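Weekly structure sync, notes
Attendees: PL (lead), two postdocs, one rotation student
Agenda item 3: pending single-chain targets
PL asked that the sequence for the first pending target be pasted directly into the notes so everyone works from the same version. It is reproduced below exactly as submitted, 255 residues in total.
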Amino acid sequence: MPTYRLVLEYDGRAYAGFQTQPHHPSVQSTLEAALSAHFGVDRVIVHGSGRTDSGVHALGQVVSFTVDVERSPDKLRMGLNTALPPEIAVVQADRVADGFHARFSARGKTYRYRLVQRRDRSPFLVGLALHLKRPLDWRAVEAALPALVGTHDFSAFRGAGCTARSPVRTIDRAEHLEIGGGEHHLVFHGNGFLRYQVRRMVGTLVEVGEGRLTPAGFAAVLASGDPSRAGRTARPGGLYLVSVDYDDEALTATT
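Predicted structure, written out during the meeting:
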Protein backbone atom coordinates (compact mmCIF):
# COMPACT_ATOMS: atom_id res chain seq x y z
CA MET A 1 0.00 0.00 0.00
CA PRO A 2 1.62 3.32 -1.04
CA THR A 3 2.72 5.78 1.65
CA TYR A 4 2.54 9.48 0.89
CA ARG A 5 3.96 12.56 2.59
CA LEU A 6 2.48 16.04 2.32
CA VAL A 7 4.04 19.33 3.44
CA LEU A 8 1.38 21.87 4.41
CA GLU A 9 1.12 25.57 4.95
CA TYR A 10 -1.86 26.86 6.88
CA ASP A 11 -3.30 29.87 8.60
CA GLY A 12 -4.40 28.51 11.96
CA ARG A 13 -6.84 31.28 12.82
CA ALA A 14 -9.82 29.41 11.37
CA TYR A 15 -9.09 26.10 13.09
CA ALA A 16 -9.14 24.56 16.56
CA GLY A 17 -5.63 23.24 15.98
CA PHE A 18 -4.26 20.53 13.74
CA GLN A 19 -5.79 17.51 15.45
CA THR A 20 -9.40 16.50 14.84
CA GLN A 21 -11.69 18.00 17.48
CA PRO A 22 -15.34 17.07 18.10
CA HIS A 23 -17.65 19.88 17.02
CA HIS A 24 -14.79 22.17 15.92
CA PRO A 25 -13.04 22.56 12.55
CA SER A 26 -9.47 21.27 12.45
CA VAL A 27 -6.74 21.07 9.83
CA GLN A 28 -6.66 17.27 10.09
CA SER A 29 -10.39 16.74 9.55
CA THR A 30 -10.44 19.23 6.66
CA LEU A 31 -7.50 17.52 4.97
CA GLU A 32 -8.91 14.02 5.53
CA ALA A 33 -12.19 15.03 3.90
CA ALA A 34 -10.34 16.39 0.86
CA LEU A 35 -8.19 13.24 0.60
CA SER A 36 -11.19 10.91 0.85
CA ALA A 37 -12.91 12.78 -1.98
CA HIS A 38 -9.71 12.89 -4.05
CA PHE A 39 -9.08 9.15 -3.81
CA GLY A 40 -12.76 8.14 -3.84
CA VAL A 41 -12.58 6.17 -0.58
CA ASP A 42 -14.56 6.29 2.65
CA ARG A 43 -11.76 7.70 4.78
CA VAL A 44 -8.06 8.49 4.67
CA ILE A 45 -6.42 8.84 8.09
CA VAL A 46 -3.48 11.25 8.22
CA HIS A 47 -0.75 11.44 10.84
CA GLY A 48 0.78 14.83 11.58
CA SER A 49 4.32 15.55 12.72
CA GLY A 50 2.83 17.37 15.68
CA ARG A 51 -0.37 18.83 17.07
CA THR A 52 -0.26 22.56 16.54
CA ASP A 53 -2.71 24.26 18.88
CA SER A 54 -5.69 26.43 18.05
CA GLY A 55 -4.55 29.58 16.26
CA VAL A 56 -1.01 28.33 15.57
CA HIS A 57 0.22 28.46 11.97
CA ALA A 58 2.44 26.26 9.82
CA LEU A 59 4.88 26.85 7.00
CA GLY A 60 6.05 23.24 6.93
CA GLN A 61 3.70 20.89 8.77
CA VAL A 62 4.25 17.32 7.57
CA VAL A 63 1.59 14.63 7.38
CA SER A 64 1.72 11.03 6.19
CA PHE A 65 -0.93 8.54 5.16
CA THR A 66 -1.36 5.25 3.34
CA VAL A 67 -4.03 4.52 0.77
CA ASP A 68 -4.49 1.64 -1.65
CA VAL A 69 -4.52 3.95 -4.66
CA GLU A 70 -1.60 5.01 -6.83
CA ARG A 71 -1.38 8.71 -7.64
CA SER A 72 1.43 10.86 -8.98
CA PRO A 73 2.63 13.38 -6.37
CA ASP A 74 2.01 16.31 -8.72
CA LYS A 75 -1.58 15.28 -9.42
CA LEU A 76 -2.14 14.72 -5.72
CA ARG A 77 -0.80 18.17 -4.80
CA MET A 78 -2.76 19.99 -7.49
CA GLY A 79 -5.97 18.06 -6.82
CA LEU A 80 -5.86 18.78 -3.10
CA ASN A 81 -5.13 22.46 -3.59
CA THR A 82 -8.22 22.70 -5.77
CA ALA A 83 -10.36 21.10 -3.08
CA LEU A 84 -8.94 22.59 0.11
CA PRO A 85 -10.08 25.94 1.57
CA PRO A 86 -7.76 28.92 0.98
CA GLU A 87 -6.35 28.74 4.53
CA ILE A 88 -4.63 25.40 3.79
CA ALA A 89 -2.19 24.64 0.97
CA VAL A 90 -0.16 21.58 0.02
CA VAL A 91 3.28 22.84 -0.97
CA GLN A 92 4.88 19.43 -1.51
CA ALA A 93 3.70 15.85 -2.06
CA ASP A 94 5.91 12.76 -2.21
CA ARG A 95 5.70 9.00 -2.32
CA VAL A 96 7.89 7.87 0.56
CA ALA A 97 9.35 4.69 2.03
CA ASP A 98 7.06 2.10 3.56
CA GLY A 99 6.97 2.61 7.30
CA PHE A 100 7.45 6.38 7.12
CA HIS A 101 5.44 8.15 9.81
CA ALA A 102 5.26 11.94 9.98
CA ARG A 103 5.53 11.95 13.76
CA PHE A 104 7.64 8.93 14.69
CA SER A 105 10.14 9.32 11.85
CA ALA A 106 10.81 12.99 12.68
CA ARG A 107 14.30 13.91 13.92
CA GLY A 108 13.83 17.61 14.65
CA LYS A 109 11.60 20.66 14.28
CA THR A 110 12.00 24.38 13.80
CA TYR A 111 9.54 26.84 15.31
CA ARG A 112 9.44 30.60 14.81
CA TYR A 113 7.66 33.12 16.99
CA ARG A 114 6.84 36.44 15.36
CA LEU A 115 6.77 39.69 17.39
CA VAL A 116 6.13 43.21 16.10
CA GLN A 117 7.06 46.39 17.99
CA ARG A 118 4.88 49.37 17.15
CA ARG A 119 2.90 51.96 19.05
CA ASP A 120 -0.46 51.01 17.57
CA ARG A 121 -1.72 47.59 16.63
CA SER A 122 -2.06 46.67 12.98
CA PRO A 123 -5.32 45.12 11.74
CA PHE A 124 -3.22 43.19 9.21
CA LEU A 125 -1.27 41.38 11.95
CA VAL A 126 -4.10 40.37 14.29
CA GLY A 127 -3.67 36.67 14.99
CA LEU A 128 -0.44 36.55 12.98
CA ALA A 129 2.08 38.14 15.38
CA LEU A 130 2.40 39.33 18.96
CA HIS A 131 1.98 43.10 19.18
CA LEU A 132 4.50 44.77 21.50
CA LYS A 133 3.47 48.29 22.45
CA ARG A 134 6.87 49.15 23.93
CA PRO A 135 10.36 48.22 22.71
CA LEU A 136 12.09 45.29 24.36
CA ASP A 137 15.72 45.14 25.40
CA TRP A 138 16.74 42.64 22.75
CA ARG A 139 20.31 42.45 24.04
CA ALA A 140 18.95 41.12 27.31
CA VAL A 141 16.79 38.63 25.42
CA GLU A 142 19.83 37.48 23.43
CA ALA A 143 21.80 37.08 26.66
CA ALA A 144 19.07 34.78 28.02
CA LEU A 145 18.76 32.54 24.95
CA PRO A 146 21.94 30.43 25.46
CA ALA A 147 20.44 28.96 28.64
CA LEU A 148 17.98 27.05 26.44
CA VAL A 149 20.62 25.38 24.28
CA GLY A 150 21.45 21.80 25.26
CA THR A 151 19.55 18.92 26.79
CA HIS A 152 17.38 20.04 29.69
CA ASP A 153 14.32 19.19 31.71
CA PHE A 154 11.87 21.76 30.34
CA SER A 155 9.20 21.22 33.00
CA ALA A 156 9.23 24.95 33.80
CA PHE A 157 7.87 25.66 30.33
CA ARG A 158 5.57 22.67 30.10
CA GLY A 159 1.91 23.50 29.59
CA ALA A 160 -0.97 22.07 31.56
CA GLY A 161 -2.36 18.91 30.00
CA CYS A 162 0.93 17.91 28.38
CA THR A 163 0.98 14.12 28.01
CA ALA A 164 4.65 13.67 27.06
CA ARG A 165 6.25 10.89 29.07
CA SER A 166 9.44 12.87 29.64
CA PRO A 167 10.00 16.63 29.92
CA VAL A 168 13.59 16.28 28.70
CA ARG A 169 14.25 17.80 25.30
CA THR A 170 17.29 19.02 23.36
CA ILE A 171 17.43 22.48 21.77
CA ASP A 172 20.40 23.19 19.51
CA ARG A 173 19.32 26.57 18.15
CA ALA A 174 17.74 29.48 19.99
CA GLU A 175 18.20 32.86 18.36
CA HIS A 176 16.76 36.31 17.85
CA LEU A 177 16.41 37.70 14.33
CA GLU A 178 15.66 41.36 13.66
CA ILE A 179 13.63 41.44 10.46
CA GLY A 180 13.14 45.20 10.13
CA GLY A 181 10.16 47.51 10.39
CA GLY A 182 9.82 46.67 14.06
CA GLU A 183 9.46 42.95 13.40
CA HIS A 184 11.48 40.40 15.38
CA HIS A 185 11.55 36.61 15.32
CA LEU A 186 12.56 34.13 18.00
CA VAL A 187 13.63 30.86 16.35
CA PHE A 188 14.07 27.49 18.04
CA HIS A 189 15.27 24.17 16.64
CA GLY A 190 15.26 20.97 18.66
CA ASN A 191 14.48 17.29 18.68
CA GLY A 192 10.98 17.95 19.96
CA PHE A 193 8.91 20.33 22.06
CA LEU A 194 6.42 19.94 24.89
CA ARG A 195 2.91 21.33 24.79
CA TYR A 196 3.03 25.15 24.99
CA GLN A 197 6.81 24.99 25.52
CA VAL A 198 7.74 27.49 22.82
CA ARG A 199 4.95 29.90 23.77
CA ARG A 200 5.92 29.77 27.46
CA MET A 201 9.60 30.28 26.63
CA VAL A 202 8.67 33.30 24.50
CA GLY A 203 6.41 34.75 27.19
CA THR A 204 9.23 34.48 29.73
CA LEU A 205 11.76 35.96 27.30
CA VAL A 206 9.43 38.94 26.82
CA GLU A 207 9.63 39.49 30.57
CA VAL A 208 13.42 39.56 30.23
CA GLY A 209 13.10 42.15 27.46
CA GLU A 210 10.78 44.22 29.65
CA GLY A 211 13.32 44.22 32.47
CA ARG A 212 11.13 42.24 34.84
CA LEU A 213 13.51 39.26 34.75
CA THR A 214 17.26 39.12 34.25
CA PRO A 215 18.99 36.66 31.89
CA ALA A 216 20.34 34.88 34.97
CA GLY A 217 16.81 34.82 36.37
CA PHE A 218 15.59 33.24 33.13
CA ALA A 219 18.20 30.47 33.49
CA ALA A 220 17.06 29.98 37.09
CA VAL A 221 13.44 29.56 35.96
CA LEU A 222 14.52 26.81 33.55
CA ALA A 223 16.63 25.08 36.21
CA SER A 224 13.82 25.22 38.77
CA GLY A 225 11.46 23.00 36.79
CA ASP A 226 8.62 25.01 38.31
CA PRO A 227 5.94 26.16 35.82
CA SER A 228 4.65 28.75 38.27
CA ARG A 229 7.91 30.69 37.88
CA ALA A 230 7.60 31.00 34.08
CA GLY A 231 6.12 34.05 32.42
CA ARG A 232 2.74 34.24 30.77
CA THR A 233 2.11 31.97 27.80
CA ALA A 234 2.51 33.97 24.60
CA ARG A 235 -0.53 34.07 22.35
CA PRO A 236 -0.80 31.32 19.72
CA GLY A 237 -1.07 33.64 16.71
CA GLY A 238 2.64 34.47 16.67
CA LEU A 239 3.79 30.84 16.50
CA TYR A 240 4.70 29.08 13.25
CA LEU A 241 5.87 25.51 12.70
CA VAL A 242 8.54 26.19 10.08
CA SER A 243 9.93 22.76 9.17
CA VAL A 244 10.38 19.15 10.25
CA ASP A 245 13.59 17.15 9.79
CA TYR A 246 13.80 13.55 8.58
CA ASP A 247 16.59 11.15 7.64
CA ASP A 248 16.95 10.70 3.87
CA GLU A 249 16.30 6.96 4.18
CA ALA A 250 12.87 7.58 5.66
CA LEU A 251 11.86 9.68 2.67
CA THR A 252 13.11 7.37 -0.08
CA ALA A 253 10.38 5.26 -1.63
CA THR A 254 11.21 1.62 -2.23
CA THR A 255 9.53 1.58 -5.64
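Discussion points:
- The mean pLDDT is 95.
- The first strand starts at residue 3 and ends at 10.
Action: rotation student to compare against the earlier draft before next sync.
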